[in-house]
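Its record is quoted verbatim for completeness.
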Amino acid sequence: MELFDLSGKVAIITGSSRGIGKAIAERFAEHGAKVTISSRKAGPCEEVAAEINARRPGAAIAVPANISSKEDLERLVGETRKAFGKVDIVVCNAASNPYYGPMSGISDDAFRKILDNNIISNHWLVQLTAEEMKERKDGAVIIVSSIGGLRGSTVIGAYNISKAADFQLCRNLAQELGPNNIRVNCIAPGLVKTDFARALWDTPEAERRSSAGNPLRRLGEPDDIAGAAVFLASKAGSWMTGQTIVVDGGSTC
């Protein structure tokens, strides 16, 4: 257990009221971490924090925040420090994709929203937490990207551009923060059964079609991604930085 022990660590997980973010928060708490649950709406955040606290009293707080607002992210970090005293781990999981169609049809506003929410917000959150990690010479940043960043697409091209940029953000930050023992890595999930991707799996036929080219012949579950996050946040991943772990059931192999 020592390799994966997160006792004494404090983690902020964005987009953690459901799906992949929720699974990561639950597993972090299970491994001993204190966690801040965050998404746009207060109610769902409070529900997840209550579920975690019912099993591990005092392990979670809820701080709603819109990742497109730097002021919200500043409050998110401040409330976490107020409750738990520090931030050791940041998981940039929240993202958006307001457009489905060819690049030729995307509006400037939609394109900017994707880039702001999926890249710049991650940069902001790391900026807001890196200094204290530097002082302690210890920290972990995990950016939840996507295998979309490895592929071209005729329908989610702007989203894929943002996810490819996350890979490079990770590499740049790993170079900058590595001398202070701060590790920065990406997870690139394949198609996971979350509300975010519901249109691709919400019928038996759609699920069969989406998983047909996958060697494991199934779609991912949020918990499939949580294990990789625990690895990257814990001592088990202490010599890994600047990398992207693909967790996709083998679909890109």
